Amino acid sequence: MPEQCDPRPYDALLLLSFGGPEGPDDVVPFLENVTRGRGIPRERLKEVGQHYFLFGGVSPINAQNRELLDALRKDFAEHGLDLPVYWGNRNWAPYLTDTLRTMVTDGHRRIAVLATSAYASYSGCRQYRENLADALATLQTEGLPVPRVDKLRHYFNHPGFVRPMADGVLAALAELPEETRAGAHIAFTTHSIPTASADTSGTPDDRTEDGTGGAYVAQHLDVARSIADAVRAETGVDHPWQLVYQSRSGAPHIPWLEPDICDHLEQLHGADVPAVVMAPIGFVSDHMEVKYDLDTEATAKAAELGLPVARSATVGADPRFAAAVRDLLLERAATERGTTPERCALGALGPSHDLCPVGCCPARTPRPAAAGADWTGPTAEVPA
C-alpha cells in the first residue's frame, strides 16, 4: 500500500457530530438530551424549540452530515483509501454509543474520530471526548470489545477548511449592491460561549496575542485574518473586519463572549457602514445556528436597519474539506506508525496537537475524557 494512502493502524473513521431533530415530535426530546442534568423545565424547552418549529421541527444538521459522509466516501474511493466511514451523534440518532457498538461488532478496533467542531473549547472538544469515554464504558459493561479511539486534531486552520470559506466570502461580497461592495465590512461569526470557558480553552500556551483570551478566540482570530488576507489578495480591497458572536443560550448573569451579531450590525449601521458580509467561520455546515440566528434573526435586523447584508457559505461537504479530512487521517496514521508527516496549516498558529494534553479545555466538574493524554479508561489492546 502506498505510504501516502496508508491508513494503518486505523481500520475505520467515525464522523462524530452534535445531532438534531428530524421532525416536530423530536424537538423537545432532542433538547432534553442537549440539556440533560441542567433541570430545565419541559415548558421552557418548548419555548426554545420554536426555532426548530419554524423549520418544520427539522434541523438541517443531519442531512448535512449525510452529505459529508457521501463526500468522504467518494473522496476516499477516488484516492484508493479503503476505509469505512461511520457516523454517530451526541444528542440524536444515530447515537454515538449505538454507532460504536456497530463498529466493534463489524470488527473495528482502532478508530479515528473526526468531530464536526473545528476549534478548541470545552463544548467543541472535551465534551465530545467525554461522550466517547461514556460510550466506551457502556461497551465494556456490555461485555463487548472496547476499541481504541483517537480524535483527529483541530482543523480550524487547515487549507481545506479555510479556503472554501474564503471563496464563500468572495461570493457573498459579489451578492452585495455594487455601490456598497468596496466599503463592506466582514463580520466573522462564531458561537458565543461563557467567557470563563473561552479563557480556559486550549492550553496556557494557546492564548491570544494580547493575553486576554484562550485558544477559542485566538484560533478564530487566526482564521479571520487568513480569510481577510485571501480576500484582499483576490480583490485588492482591505475590508475592515471583526470577530463577533451569536447563538448565546446561557443565563443572563453569566458573562458570555460579545459583541452579539445583531448588536454589531446596529453599531455598523450607526457608523454609516454601507454593507456587511456575515461569515460564519465557527460552523462546519449550515445548521440551525446559521439558518435561524443568521439567515432569519440577523438578516431581519439588517432589513430593519436598511443595511445590505450577505451571508457567506460554510464549508459543508465541499470536496476540499473532504480532502482535508483524508489528509488529517493519513497524517495521524503516519504519526502513529512512527513517521513524521507534513502537517498543513495556514495562519500564524501552526498545526494543533494530536493528543489533548492534561488540563486542556477543562470542565467545571471533571469527568473522564477519552482520546487525550489524561485517559485511563477502557481501551482494547490493539497492534500499532
Automatic annotation (TrEMBL):
Its EC number is 4.99.1.9. Keywords: Cytoplasm, Heme biosynthesis, Iron, Lyase, Metal-binding, Porphyrin biosynthesis. Its main location: cytoplasm. The keyword Iron applies. GO terms for cellular component: cytoplasm. Fe-coproporphyrin III binds at residues 59, 128. Gene3D superfamilies: 3.40.50.1400. CDD domains: Ferrochelatase_C, Ferrochelatase_N. Fe(2+) binds at residues 191, 289. GO terms for molecular function: ferrochelatase activity; metal ion binding. It is found in: Cytoplasm. Pathway: Porphyrin-containing compound metabolism; protoheme biosynthesis. It comes from the Bacteria. Pfam families: Ferrochelatase. It catalyses: Fe-coproporphyrin III + 2 H(+) = coproporphyrin III + Fe(2+). It is an enzyme of class 4 (lyase). GO terms for biological process: heme biosynthetic process. The keyword Lyase applies. Involved in coproporphyrin-dependent heme b biosynthesis. Catalyzes the insertion of ferrous iron into coproporphyrin III to form Fe-coproporphyrin III. PANTHER family: FERROCHELATASE, FERROCHELATASE, MITOCHONDRIAL. Belongs to the ferrochelatase family. This is Coproporphyrin III ferrochelatase. It comes from Streptomyces noursei (Streptomyces albulus).
